[in-house]
């Protein structure tokens, strides 16, 4: 069977426009999806929007809209954002779609058939902003007399008839899962937090609401709608064809290989989701990766604080590829990160314009001039040639190792370490000085440099698809020879190929003159 890989983002609440945290998650997930495709996997990449729930109802009311109208308006922005960030998602799911209603009803019925759902009364705290129930001991009363949950969002008292899920019955099964699959949640610290939460004891979970009707009706009891997280999590199986578990896509792609989510929603993905699936008799996903939060110069962004930075504006300002590179290189994947204009410009100028851009531009224009753009046949390799080629050949293995645990920044670190080495090689061999004295040797140095850039560009594709493609175009690498099977040294750039005129791929950022 072909290697397959099913990867998802969280599905965003469309109660506002997409912010940079959403863009970051989409970009990172896309880079992983593209990496796996280039590495020969049959990838399915799903993203979408989480449209039900009380938060949507409240925001819509404030704006004088129906929840449906609010969703429709903002979903268009999320779809545009994903496109603008150049994401290669295979599908975009909306939880308001009919296929998703059918799927959510089916998972509910399976959990009910397993004896895990019962009717009772809920009395407890609820955070609308988190769409989460919290135990009293998880809340605190602030000096402002506002009671808040563990994430700092206000909670309100809820008392209503509710269907419950027998989460308490899954405590040991979940602990066994964490034991059996120690990288079920990465980074590891996140799994430790989840495991200690579960060891602390699990209460049964309220999974329906009666005080508003924006949601999926509970099968057999239409006075209730499902708790939004029951339907939200279910999107991951809807996307591959559930409830048709015999469908080709479900059989091929489920269980998911990777759910990429932010650190604030680990509990839902690592506790509730596997418990629902176990109850429904559906396999649990293989891994949940929790990325960190992005802060604008150290300050938390949130819709309510109002300092949201528009991802479209950032893409317009810096370009999509440089923006993708910045986030994935600068922020160790799994940790929180900061961004600022200065930090983005520093990366653009140092890593992209200087290190990779200049090396490509200098070597390829020398090739254009000295060899009319025909890639020369290399002579015997010197020790220096062999060393830089070996470093480039080793990259694909390092990249795969790093990607096995989603260390995207380590892939980029390794690739740019070779770029730095290639610059030292180029400076040391001084091919410009060889034009008159030893043109054959000059040709070898330019050939070796082009081969290193080829491997670098192939590996940069997941993060900078457009710029890398341009770089591969000016190296005359055929479109069908750009996957990772072409790396590692058993295949080299073809001598004798005619290269097109080199054009700069990574422009420097020049600060606009002050008004
Ligand atoms: O949580 N930096 O939706 P959401 C990085 N609908 N990531 C961030 C972030 C930030 N500043 N702010 C939010 C939901 N995120 C649910 C998900 S999944 C079945 C349902 C991340 O719109 C956040 O952690 O609040 C989450 O992974 C995603 O953006 C969507 O957040």
TrEMBL record:
Its EC number is 6.1.1.10. The keyword Ligase applies. It is an enzyme of class 6 (ligase). The keyword Magnesium does not apply. It catalyses: tRNA(Met) + L-methionine + ATP = L-methionyl-tRNA(Met) + AMP + diphosphate. One of its GO terms (cellular component) is cytoplasm. InterPro entries: aa-tRNA-synth_I_CS, Anticodon_Met, Met-tRNA_synth, Met-tRNA_synth_2, Methionyl/Leucyl_tRNA_Synth, MetRS_core, Rossmann-like_a/b/a_fold, tRNAsynth_Ia_anticodon-bd. Keywords: Aminoacyl-tRNA synthetase, ATP-binding, Cytoplasm, Ligase, Nucleotide-binding, Protein biosynthesis. It comes from the Bacteria. Residues 6-138, 156-363 form the Methionyl/Leucyl tRNA synthetase domain. A motif ('HIGH' region) lies at residues 12-22. It is found in: Cytoplasm. Residues 375-506 form the Methionyl-tRNA synthetase anticodon-binding domain. Its main location: cytoplasm. A motif ('KMSKS' region) lies at residues 300-304. GO terms for biological process: methionyl-tRNA aminoacylation. Pfam families: Anticodon_3, tRNA-synt_1g. GO terms for molecular function: ATP binding; methionine-tRNA ligase activity. Belongs to the class-I aminoacyl-tRNA synthetase family. MetG type 2B subfamily. Monomer. Is required not only for elongation of protein synthesis but also for the initiation of all mRNA translation through initiator tRNA(fMet) aminoacylation. This is Methionine--tRNA ligase. The gene is metG.
């Amino acid at each position: 069977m072909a290697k397959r890989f099913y990867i998802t983002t969280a599905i965003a609440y469309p109660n506002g426009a997409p912010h940079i945290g959403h863009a970051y998650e989409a970009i990172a997930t896309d880079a992983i999806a593209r990496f796996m495709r280039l590495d020969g996997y049959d990838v399915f990449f799903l993203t979408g929007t989480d449209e039900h729930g009380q938060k949507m109802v409240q925001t819509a009311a404030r704006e004088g809209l129906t929840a449906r109208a609010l969703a429709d308006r903002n979903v268009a922005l999320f779809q545009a954002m994903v496109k603008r960030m150049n994401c290669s998602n295979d599908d975009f799911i909306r939880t308001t779609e009919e296929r998703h209603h059918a799927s959510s009803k089916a998972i509910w019925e399976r959990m009910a058939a397993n004896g895990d759902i019962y009717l009772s009364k809920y009395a407890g705290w609820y955070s609308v902003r988190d769409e989460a129930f919290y135990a009293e001991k998880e809340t605190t009363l602030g000096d402002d007399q506002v009671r808040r949950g563990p994430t700092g969002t206000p909670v309100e008292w809820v008392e209503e008839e509710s269907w419950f899920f027998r989460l308490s019955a899954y405590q040991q099964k979940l602990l066994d899962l964490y034991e059996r699959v120690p990288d079920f949640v990465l980074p590891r610290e996140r799994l430790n937090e989840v495991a200690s939460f579960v060891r602390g004891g699990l209460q049964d979970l309220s999974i329906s609401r009666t005080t508003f009707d924006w949601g999926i009706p509970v099968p057999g009891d239409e006075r209730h709608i499902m708790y939004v997280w029951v339907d939200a999590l279910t999107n991951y199986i809807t996307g591959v064809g559930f409830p048709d578990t015999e469908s080709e896509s479900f059989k091929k792609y489920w269980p998911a290989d990777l759910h990429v989510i932010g650190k604030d929603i680990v509990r839902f993905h690592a506790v509730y989701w596997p418990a629902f699936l176990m109850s429904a008799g559906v396999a649990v996903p293989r891994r949940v990766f929790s990325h960190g939060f992005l802060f604008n110069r150290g300050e938390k962004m949130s819709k309510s604080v109002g300092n949201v930075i528009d991802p479209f504006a950032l893409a317009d300002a810096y370009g999509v590829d440089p923006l993708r590179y910045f986030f994935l290189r600068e922020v160790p994947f799994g940790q929180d990160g900061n961004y600022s204009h200065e930090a983005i410009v520093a990366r653009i100028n140092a890593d992209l314009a200087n290190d990779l851009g200049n090396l490509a531009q200098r070597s390829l224009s020398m090739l254009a001039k000295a060899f009319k753009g025909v890639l020369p046949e290399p002579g015997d390799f010197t020790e220096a040639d062999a060393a830089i080629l070996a470093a480039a050949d080793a990259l694909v293995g390092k990249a795969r190792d790093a990607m096995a645990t989603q260390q995207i920044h380590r892939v980029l670190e390794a690739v740019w370490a070779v770029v730095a080495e290639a610059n030292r090689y180029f400076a040391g061999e001084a091919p410009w000085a060889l034009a008159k004295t030893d043109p054959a040797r000059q040709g070898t140095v330019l050939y070796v440099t082009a081969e290193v850039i080829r491997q670098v560009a192939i590996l940069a594709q997941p993060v900078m698809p457009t710029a890398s493609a341009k770089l591969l175009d000016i190296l005359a690498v055929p479109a069908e020879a750009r996957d990772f099977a072409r790396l590692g040294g058993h295949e080299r750039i073809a001598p004798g190929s005619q290269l097109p005129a080199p054009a700069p791929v990574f422009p420097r950022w020049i600060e606009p003159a002050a008004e």
